[in-house]
Amino acid sequence: MKLLNNINEVNDIKQFDDEDWPDLASEIREFLITNISKTGGHLASNLGCVELTMALHLVLDLPKDKIIWDVGHQSYTHKILTGRKDGFLQLRQFGGMSGFPKACESETDVFDTGHSSTSISAAIGMAKACELKGEDKTIVAVIGDGSFTGGLAFEALNNLGRLKSSCLIVLNDNEMSIDENVGGMSTYLNKFRVGKAYNETKMNVEKRLMNIPGIGEGLTRVIKRGKDSIKELLVPGMFFEDLGITYIGPIDGHNIGQMVDTFEDAIKLKRPVVVHVKTQKGRGYRYAERHPQYFHGVSPFDVETGKVIEKQKKMTNTGVFSRKMLALGEQYPNLVAITAAMASGTGLEKFSKEYPNRFFDVGIAEQHAVVFAAGLAKEGMIPVVAVYSSFLQRAYDQILHDVCLQNLHVVFAIDRSGLVGQDGATHQGIFDDAYLTNIPNMTVIAPKNRYELTKAMEYAMQYNGPIAIKYGRGDAFYGLKDSLEPFVYGKSEMIYEGQKVALIAVGNMVEESCTVYERLKEKGYCPTLVNARFVKPLDTEMLDDIAKHHELIVTVEEQVYQGSFGQAVNAYYMQQNVKNITIENIAIDDCFVEQGDVDALRKLLHMDADSIVMRIEECMKSL
User: Fold this and answer.
1) Nearest to 483, CA basis, from 447, 520, 524
2) 366 annotated active-site
3) Which residue in 79, 84, 358, 394 is the catalytic one?
4) β 493-496/528-531 pair status
5) Which phi and psi angles does 51 have, rounded to 5°?
6) Could you give the CA distance from residue 152 to residue 394 in angstroms, rounded to a whole number?
7) In a 10 Å sphere around its CB, with 0-12 CB exposed, 13-18 middle and 19+ buried, how is residue 206 labelled?
């Protein structure tokens, strides 16, 4: 690491001669593979954009100039080049460095990201602000071809073409193959299109043609139309050109010299420019090159074999969902599955192979996924939209306006509900109760274990209306196997019936509440434990009953309090003017939760078993 050891501050990369660049890129890749193998993280995407990041850092003057990383999981090289090598020892760990750009970490992380398709909009805003203030700064958005499927990216491009602000958009296209014919022709043409002489010559020719009396204006239009028609056949960037944005590319995303020259020329144009860069995901590590999807977000692994270092394998909630979808697919010919570029992550990969005609990957387009599902439901299909909790937030209006308003039978399989751990604040699924339960016609189920998840899916097939099933990331809970009452709409499940203290637990907090139950019994209490099962509607009959026989009612959930199950319980008792009971809500305060393993985060938020028992004892003392 003789070169990398000299990277300790922003812009240190500029001390190297161009002959050192390939060696520095190799050292960065070695550093990334070694460190991510220990901590886990996003490997393939970062290996693919090492040279791209180096080229940007060589051209730009950071932190004056700004780079906005779309999603941000490909920003590891950027973090290295801005003096944060040591942070990789605790990458994505509690109290450590985030796996995404964070302004609180460095002034070179100019925009916090974690979800896709936002970078162009943010870059345009920054560029326009610089114009208004008269500041000379270069604003760059780096966006992947996957993120380009998000509608927000197209909305931004449409606006950029109208505003004409000076902004550089780097399209990081990491597909596995490169069309050499198109690429060669495009590279040849771009030598002229980005050059000062070409642009000046084009403008001079148009001016001279326009000055020909009588026919100049018409002749110019005809020639321009003909020229554009030819370009449409040869140049893949005419979509951008028609929006008023200069297109350059595609160029080799692993040729630092070519990218440096191209970026410098593009910036000099002082107008909106898209530079299309072709990269190889996972480059430099053979296992990541062969299996880029597997190494997108990977747990700690053995560098020599590429195999993930795992403890004893258990069935995950995602795995339970995956198996049940296969069975339901056979039972219901009108069942269809929809994902937004997350077939593997949401457990739909097996379904896609078994029922390819009933599987739809719409790309990173959650809004479209929901309305597409609404259209399918209108014609008698049963669409299951499998999506992470934090990504479903992006389609809130479509859930409300297109599904719930029409009371359509759309099933939302919401993975990663609750705390998800090391991806941090942008990925925590702690808001789904708040954004789902306030919508009329929506039913929300939170299964307590793997067995109840399968029963919830069976129930959802027969239900007639919008219904969401939310479950946590990681291993499925195997406990309480024998405690599985039949599903009845809006009814909870009494697990243990006791006195004085009643625990009402929601979804993935039932497991933690079982530990609380046992600890309280050891301390001489005889608590009641209820599995809420339905977050909406509330089981008011159960609430009325336990209010008659208990002094303390404790709601336990892995959601923010505002808009939570616990808040709904409080509101119900207040409306009913119920007195002589104390209510304690175990939920997340009004805050965003950073990265860390779930056990550490629960302890931090006072939601672990020890903290809950302590809070209950304190409450009982004051009664």
Assistant:
1) 447
2) yes
3) 394
4) antiparallel
5) -65, -35
6) 10
7) middle
What CA–CA distance (Å, rounded) separates 570 from 444?
18
**Could you give the CA distance from residue 206 to residue 204 in angstroms, rounded to a whole number?**
5
Identity of the residue numbered 191: K
Contact between 45 and 296 (Cβ < 8 Å):
yes
What distances in angstroms separate CA 436 from CA 393, 440, 467, 593, one per listed residue? 9, 9, 10, 20
With CA atoms as reference, report the closest residue to 263 among 243, 283, 248, 278. 248
Other C-beta atoms closer than 10 Å to the C-beta of 453 total 24
The dihedrals phi and psi of 606, each to the nearest 5 degrees, come to 60, 40
Pairing between β-strand 582-588 and β-strand 493-496 as defined by DSSP bridges: unpaired
Query: How big is the CA angle at 185 (ends 184 and 191), to the nearest 5 degrees?
Result: 95
Statement: residue 389 has pLDDT above 70: yes
| pLDDT for residue 209 | 52
The torsion of the CA quartet 129, 133, 136, 140, rounded to 10 degrees, works out to -10
Residue 394 designated active-site: yes
Report pLDDT for 178: 28
Cβ neighbourhood burial of 541 (10 Å; 0-12, 13-18, 19+): exposed
CA angle 70, 72, 76 (to 5 degrees): 135
Rounded Cα gap, residues 541 and 529, in angstroms: 16
Instruction: Check residue 563 and give left, alpha or beta (phi > 0: left; psi -120 to 50: alpha).
Output: left
Sort strands 500-505 and 528-531 into parallel, antiparallel or unpaired: parallel
Confidence of residue 101 (pLDDT cuts 50, 70, 90): very high
Q: State yes or no: is 225 an active-site residue.
A: no
pLDDT tens digits, 204-227:
555 555 566 666 666 555 555 544
What is the DSSP track for 27-67? Answer: HHHHHHHHHHHHH-B--HHHHHTHHHHHHHHHHS-TTTSEE
Q: Hey, what are 509's tokens?
A: 């907090």
**∠ CA 575-551-541, rounded to 5°:** 45
- Output the six-digit token pair for 582: 């104390």
pTM for the structure as a whole: 0.87
Q: Which of 51, 366, 452, 512 is catalytic?
A: 366
Measure the CA angle with vertex 422, ends 416 and 426; round to 5°. Answer: 65
pLDDT for 265 beyond 50: yes
Record the tokens describing residue 290, joined without a space. Answer: 């062969």
- How far apart are the two ends of the chain, measured CA to CA in Å? 64
Asked if the model's pLDDT at residue 543 lies above 90, the reply is: yes
With beta carbons less than 8 A apart as the criterion, state whether 174 and 366 touch. no
Indicate the pLDDT class of residue 230, thresholds 50, 70 and 90: very low
Rg (CA), the chain: 28
Q: 86 Cβ partners below 8 Å, 6+ apart?
A: none
Would the pLDDT of 100 be above 80?
A: yes
Nearest one of 467, 365, 368 to 413, comparing CA atoms = 467
* Residue 236 pLDDT: 54
Sign of CA dihedral 472, 475, 476, 477: negative
CA distance 104 to 64: 17
pLDDT tens, position by position, 155-193: 999 999 888 889 999 999 987 432 332 334 334 334 434
Whether the upstream peptide bond of residue 63 has omega within 30° of 0, thus cis, is: yes
> 278, 281, 470, 519: which one is catalytic?
281
Query: 469 forms bridges with which residues in the sheet?
Result: 413, 445
The stretch 264-269 carries a mean pLDDT of 95
User: Which tokens is 248 given?
Assistant: 């350059």
